[in-house]
Amino acid sequence: MSKACMVTLGVDLSGQQDILSLDIVRTEKAAEWMAILEGLRQRGVRDVFFLCSDNLPGLDKAIEAIYPESIRQICIVHQIRNSLKYVSYKERKKMAADIKGIYRADGQREAKRALEAFREQWHGKYARAVESWENNWDNLTAFLEYPHEIRKLIYTTNIIESFNASLRKYTRNKKVLPNDDAAIKSIYLAAMAIRRKWHKSRFNWPQIHNQLYIHFKERMSL
């Protein structure tokens, strides 16, 4: 039976980046995410300002239950990839350029105008791609409410993608494992082997911290 290992990576208020949890799951349903987030809370993660991921099923409900004040941001890079997946190769470059007008906008109003232009240009031919942006709009553009220091931190999950890519170099030859404990042990040992690549302080943290304090002063003082 195939299962997935869900990796949670966090950045604390000192700017330190670290792996918070490794969880083996059978399906990506709300109940699985609820258990993962509840596990983090029980282990001391009191608050989460931003929770960034690709568009995973069930995650929104789990966040609402465990960290209701958390701001959900869907990874823009994943969204772009998914938007272009079923687009004709010769039209991908043009669509990508139109999408750029959305996520490179200065704010929500400009992004909305870019979305309207995107819909007018592509909905007749690629309705699924356009409607994906519309249906997930709030979670895709949450980062536009914040200054550039914070935007760079939250608009993509490249941090964890880099970790996963490095991890696969150690785990790709282990196709079958006897149980979940063996899988976790294998992944943990691989993570420790590449620890220097992900256990580090975030670049430009003093400026990021200052902006976080401006927007989340009361929650940072708890």
Instruction: Describe the sheet with the most strands.
Output: 3 strands, antiparallel
Work out the strand percent. 5-15%
Q: Helix- and strand-based class? A: alpha+beta
The helix count comes to 12
CATH topology of the largest domain: Nucleotidyltransferase, domain 5
State the separation between the terminal residues, measured CA to CA: 44 Å
What integer is the average pLDDT? Answer: 91
Structural commentary:
It is built from 12 helices and 5 strands. By secondary structure, it is an alpha+beta fold. The chain folds into 2 domains: 136 residues, Nucleotidyltransferase, domain 5 (2-Layer Sandwich), CATH 3.30.420; 64 residues. It has a 3-stranded antiparallel β-sheet with strand order 1-2-5. α2 links the parallel β3 and β4. α3 packs antiparallel against α6 and α4 runs antiparallel to α5. The radius of gyration is 19 Å and the shape is globular. The mean pLDDT is 91.
